[in-house]
Amino acid sequence: DEAVIFMKPASALAQGSRLRYPSHGADLHHEAEIVVRVARDGVPVSDDDAATLVGELALGLDMTLRDVQSRLKKAGLPWEKAKAFDDSAAVGPFIAADGIDLADISLQLAVNGQLRQAGSSAMMLRPIPQLLREVAAIWPLQKGDLIFTGTPAGVAAVGVGDRLTLSSPQLPGATWQIVDRP
Protein backbone atom coordinates (compact mmCIF):
# COMPACT_ATOMS: atom_id res chain seq x y z
CA ASP A 1 0.00 0.00 0.00
CA GLU A 2 2.95 2.36 0.44
CA ALA A 3 4.96 3.80 -2.41
CA VAL A 4 8.60 2.75 -2.51
CA ILE A 5 10.49 6.01 -2.10
CA PHE A 6 14.25 6.47 -2.27
CA MET A 7 16.63 9.35 -2.89
CA LYS A 8 19.57 9.83 -5.19
CA PRO A 9 22.44 12.29 -4.73
CA ALA A 10 23.06 15.01 -7.29
CA SER A 11 26.02 12.99 -8.60
CA ALA A 12 23.57 10.30 -9.81
CA LEU A 13 22.23 12.68 -12.48
CA ALA A 14 23.78 11.69 -15.81
CA GLN A 15 25.57 14.39 -17.80
CA GLY A 16 25.22 13.81 -21.53
CA SER A 17 24.21 10.75 -23.50
CA ARG A 18 26.67 8.21 -22.12
CA LEU A 19 25.84 6.17 -19.02
CA ARG A 20 28.82 4.55 -17.32
CA TYR A 21 28.32 0.96 -16.23
CA PRO A 22 29.01 0.98 -12.47
CA SER A 23 31.94 -1.02 -11.13
CA HIS A 24 30.26 -2.39 -7.99
CA GLY A 25 27.67 -4.64 -9.67
CA ALA A 26 27.14 -6.95 -12.63
CA ASP A 27 23.40 -6.86 -13.44
CA LEU A 28 22.37 -3.36 -14.58
CA HIS A 29 18.65 -2.87 -15.35
CA HIS A 30 16.73 -0.03 -17.00
CA GLU A 31 13.52 1.47 -15.63
CA ALA A 32 11.78 3.96 -17.96
CA GLU A 33 9.93 6.68 -16.07
CA ILE A 34 8.16 10.02 -16.33
CA VAL A 35 10.10 12.68 -14.43
CA VAL A 36 8.50 15.71 -12.74
CA ARG A 37 10.46 18.89 -12.04
CA VAL A 38 8.81 20.70 -9.13
CA ALA A 39 7.83 24.31 -9.94
CA ARG A 40 7.85 25.80 -6.45
CA ASP A 41 8.27 24.98 -2.78
CA GLY A 42 5.21 23.43 -1.19
CA VAL A 43 3.39 20.73 0.70
CA PRO A 44 0.23 19.91 -1.26
CA VAL A 45 -2.92 19.10 0.70
CA SER A 46 -4.93 17.76 -2.24
CA ASP A 47 -4.32 16.20 -5.65
CA ASP A 48 -5.39 19.47 -7.30
CA ASP A 49 -2.86 21.37 -5.18
CA ALA A 50 -0.17 18.79 -6.01
CA ALA A 51 -0.85 19.16 -9.74
CA THR A 52 0.00 22.88 -9.47
CA LEU A 53 3.49 21.95 -8.26
CA VAL A 54 4.28 20.10 -11.52
CA GLY A 55 6.33 22.64 -13.45
CA GLU A 56 8.00 20.58 -16.15
CA LEU A 57 8.00 16.99 -17.38
CA ALA A 58 10.59 14.76 -19.03
CA LEU A 59 11.32 11.12 -19.76
CA GLY A 60 14.01 9.48 -17.68
CA LEU A 61 15.81 6.30 -16.78
CA ASP A 62 16.19 4.99 -13.25
CA MET A 63 19.12 2.58 -13.55
CA THR A 64 19.35 -0.20 -10.96
CA LEU A 65 22.00 -2.77 -10.13
CA ARG A 66 19.60 -5.68 -9.61
CA ASP A 67 22.24 -8.02 -8.13
CA VAL A 68 23.22 -5.43 -5.52
CA GLN A 69 19.56 -4.61 -4.80
CA SER A 70 18.73 -8.29 -4.25
CA ARG A 71 21.62 -8.70 -1.84
CA LEU A 72 20.63 -5.55 0.09
CA LYS A 73 16.95 -6.56 0.24
CA LYS A 74 17.85 -9.98 1.67
CA ALA A 75 19.94 -8.30 4.37
CA GLY A 76 17.17 -5.78 5.14
CA LEU A 77 19.42 -2.88 4.13
CA PRO A 78 18.62 0.32 2.21
CA TRP A 79 18.92 0.22 -1.59
CA GLU A 80 21.07 3.31 -2.24
CA LYS A 81 24.10 1.26 -3.35
CA ALA A 82 21.86 -0.34 -5.99
CA LYS A 83 20.06 2.80 -7.18
CA ALA A 84 22.09 5.92 -6.31
CA PHE A 85 25.39 5.56 -8.18
CA ASP A 86 26.90 7.90 -10.81
CA ASP A 87 24.74 8.07 -13.99
CA SER A 88 21.88 6.13 -12.38
CA ALA A 89 19.42 8.97 -13.13
CA ALA A 90 19.26 9.91 -16.82
CA VAL A 91 16.79 12.65 -17.75
CA GLY A 92 15.76 13.84 -21.21
CA PRO A 93 14.78 17.40 -22.16
CA PHE A 94 12.13 19.01 -19.97
CA ILE A 95 9.05 20.78 -21.32
CA ALA A 96 6.43 22.86 -19.51
CA ALA A 97 3.65 20.74 -18.01
CA ASP A 98 0.97 23.28 -18.98
CA GLY A 99 -1.68 21.60 -21.11
CA ILE A 100 -0.38 18.05 -20.57
CA ASP A 101 -2.86 15.62 -19.02
CA LEU A 102 -0.93 14.09 -16.10
CA ALA A 103 -3.30 11.12 -16.16
CA ASP A 104 -2.49 10.17 -19.75
CA ILE A 105 1.22 10.45 -20.58
CA SER A 106 2.53 7.56 -22.69
CA LEU A 107 6.12 6.37 -22.78
CA GLN A 108 8.14 3.69 -24.54
CA LEU A 109 11.68 2.42 -24.15
CA ALA A 110 13.55 0.60 -26.91
CA VAL A 111 16.93 -1.05 -26.36
CA ASN A 112 18.94 -1.41 -29.56
CA GLY A 113 15.73 -0.79 -31.51
CA GLN A 114 13.71 -3.49 -29.71
CA LEU A 115 10.70 -2.35 -27.65
CA ARG A 116 11.22 -3.26 -23.99
CA GLN A 117 8.79 -1.08 -22.07
CA ALA A 118 5.53 0.66 -22.96
CA GLY A 119 3.09 2.25 -20.59
CA SER A 120 1.14 5.29 -19.56
CA SER A 121 0.62 7.38 -16.46
CA ALA A 122 -2.98 6.08 -16.64
CA MET A 123 -1.60 2.63 -15.75
CA MET A 124 0.46 3.79 -12.76
CA LEU A 125 -0.22 2.44 -9.26
CA ARG A 126 -0.45 6.05 -8.08
CA PRO A 127 -1.46 9.07 -10.12
CA ILE A 128 1.31 11.68 -10.31
CA PRO A 129 -0.43 14.19 -7.97
CA GLN A 130 -1.01 11.48 -5.34
CA LEU A 131 2.66 10.46 -5.52
CA LEU A 132 3.73 14.09 -5.00
CA ARG A 133 1.44 14.35 -1.96
CA GLU A 134 2.92 11.16 -0.48
CA VAL A 135 6.49 12.37 -0.98
CA ALA A 136 5.66 15.83 0.40
CA ALA A 137 4.11 14.29 3.52
CA ILE A 138 7.65 13.23 4.47
CA TRP A 139 9.82 15.87 2.80
CA PRO A 140 8.45 19.26 1.74
CA LEU A 141 8.86 19.63 -2.03
CA GLN A 142 11.33 22.26 -3.19
CA LYS A 143 11.57 24.10 -6.47
CA GLY A 144 13.74 22.06 -8.83
CA ASP A 145 13.26 18.69 -7.10
CA LEU A 146 13.09 15.82 -9.60
CA ILE A 147 10.51 13.09 -8.90
CA PHE A 148 10.76 9.84 -10.89
CA THR A 149 7.23 8.44 -10.96
CA GLY A 150 7.59 4.67 -11.42
CA THR A 151 8.15 2.26 -14.28
CA PRO A 152 5.91 0.08 -16.47
CA ALA A 153 6.46 -3.65 -16.95
CA GLY A 154 9.41 -4.77 -19.05
CA VAL A 155 12.37 -3.87 -16.85
CA ALA A 156 15.40 -5.84 -18.05
CA ALA A 157 19.18 -6.01 -18.07
CA VAL A 158 21.41 -3.88 -20.30
CA GLY A 159 25.08 -4.14 -21.12
CA VAL A 160 27.98 -2.10 -22.42
CA GLY A 161 27.23 -0.82 -25.93
CA ASP A 162 23.43 -0.96 -25.59
CA ARG A 163 21.47 2.10 -26.82
CA LEU A 164 18.38 3.04 -24.82
CA THR A 165 15.82 5.28 -26.53
CA LEU A 166 12.85 6.78 -24.71
CA SER A 167 9.90 8.20 -26.66
CA SER A 168 6.46 9.65 -26.01
CA PRO A 169 3.78 11.47 -28.02
CA GLN A 170 3.61 14.10 -25.27
CA LEU A 171 7.26 14.51 -24.17
CA PRO A 172 10.59 14.90 -25.99
CA GLY A 173 12.51 11.68 -26.57
CA ALA A 174 16.09 10.94 -25.60
CA THR A 175 18.78 8.34 -26.27
CA TRP A 176 21.64 7.12 -24.06
CA GLN A 177 24.36 4.54 -24.55
CA ILE A 178 25.85 2.31 -21.87
CA VAL A 179 29.64 2.64 -21.84
CA ASP A 180 32.43 0.72 -20.14
CA ARG A 181 32.93 0.81 -16.42
CA PRO A 182 34.98 3.72 -15.11
TrEMBL record:
Q: Name one Pfam family in it.
A: FAA_hydrolase
Q: Which residues form the Fumarylacetoacetase-like C-terminal domain?
A: 3-171
Q: Which domain of life is it from?
A: Eukaryota
Instruction: Please give the Gene Ontology molecular function terms for this protein.
Output: acetylpyruvate hydrolase activity; metal ion binding; oxaloacetate tautomerase activity
Q: Which UniProt keywords apply?
A: Metal-binding
Provide the reaction this enzyme catalyses: oxaloacetate = enol-oxaloacetate
Identify the EC number(s). Answer: 5.3.2.2
Say which enzyme class the record assigns.
Answer: isomerase
Q: Does the keyword field hold Metal-binding? A: yes
Give the record's family classification.
Belongs to the FAH family.
Q: What name goes with this protein?
A: oxaloacetate tautomerase
| Organism annotation | Cyprideis torosa
What does the record give as the organism's lineage? Eukaryota, Metazoa, Ecdysozoa, Arthropoda, Crustacea
